[in-house]
């Protein structure tokens, strides 16, 4: 059986440049859609978070920003169906990435607060990249690779092709204008070959060897389908 590790943010808020904290967590569709597709394919999923803290759903992701009402209802129903798993994640420092066929990071604004700076996640990402085994990060989750930098600031992901939520897409959120920094800028500054689609909020997937990234929530399905096709 194909074993998959979902690394999910444990953050409940995103600190903005004015000092306010915007409530956040993981983005519903970015976790639910890949989880559903992988489960339907017969893959076994383990959910891990920093400290083993139950992840928080960003309720905005099931509001108007989450798509049409019918779609939001489907996503919520799926998340409800796996709530038992989400309420009892494994602590990230207790997992061994080499035991999994795929490591998958769903996004949401939460990773901007914790995974971007988490040394345990950073070590896992360094090891995973070096192994050449499949690694996928979606929307804001690619920010986690910043924590993979060494003491001198060198990043093993430098030079790799990746995507993630663009500056333009971030600024579509009113609170996004208050961000201390943007994912696209941070990846570029780290030496990553950042790519994005021609139009915002449209599916866009970048694949560089065994490194898979999706630009935005709308890319969740396409990213999961591409992984399924490649790992079949």
UniProtKB/TrEMBL annotation:
CDD domains, per the entry: GATase1_Hsp31_like
SUPFAM superfamilies membership: Class I glutamine amidotransferase-like (SSF52317)
Signal sequence interval, chain numbering: none
Keywords on record: Glutamine amidotransferase, Lyase, Stress response, Transferase
Gene Ontology terms: biological process: methylglyoxal catabolic process to D-lactate via S-lactoyl-glutathione
Segments forming domain DJ-1/PfpI: 29-229
UniProt cross-references to Gene3D superfamilies, sorted A to Z: 3.40.50.880
GO cellular component annotations of the record: cytoplasm
One MF term in the entry's GO annotations: glyoxalase III activity
Coiled coil: none
Family (UniProt): Belongs to the peptidase C56 family. HSP31-like subfamily.
Entry protein name: Type 1 glutamine amidotransferase domain-containing protein
């Amino acid at each position: 059986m194909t074993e998959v590790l979902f690394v999910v943010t444990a953050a409940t808020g995103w600190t903005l440049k004015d000092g306010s904290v915007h409530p956040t967590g993981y983005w519903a569709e970015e976790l639910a859609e890949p989880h559903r597709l992988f489960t339907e394919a017969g893959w076994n999923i383990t959910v891990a978070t920093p400290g083993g803290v139950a992840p928080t759903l960003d309720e905005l992701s099931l509001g108007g920003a989450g798509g049409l009402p019918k779609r939001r209802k489907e996503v919520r129903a799926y998340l409800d169906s796996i709530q038992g798993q989400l309420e009892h994640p494994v602590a990230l420092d207790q997992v061994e990435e080499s035991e999994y066929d795929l490591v998958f990071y769903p996004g949401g604004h939460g990773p901007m607060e914790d995974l971007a700076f988490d040394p345990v996640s950073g070590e896992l990402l360094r090891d995973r990249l070096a192994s050449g085994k499949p690694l996928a990060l979606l929307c804001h989750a690619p920010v986690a690779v910043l924590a993979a930098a060494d003491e001198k600031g060198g990043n093993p992901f430098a030079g790799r092709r990746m995507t993630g939520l663009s500056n333009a897409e971030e600024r579509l959120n009113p609170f996004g204008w208050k961000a201390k920094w943007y994912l696209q800028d941070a990846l570029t500054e780290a030496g990553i070959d950042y790519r994005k689609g021609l139009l915002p909020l449209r599916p866009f997937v970048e694949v560089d060897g065994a490194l898979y990234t999706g630009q935005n929530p709308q890319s969740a399905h396409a990213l999961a389908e591409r992984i399924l096709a490649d790992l079949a």
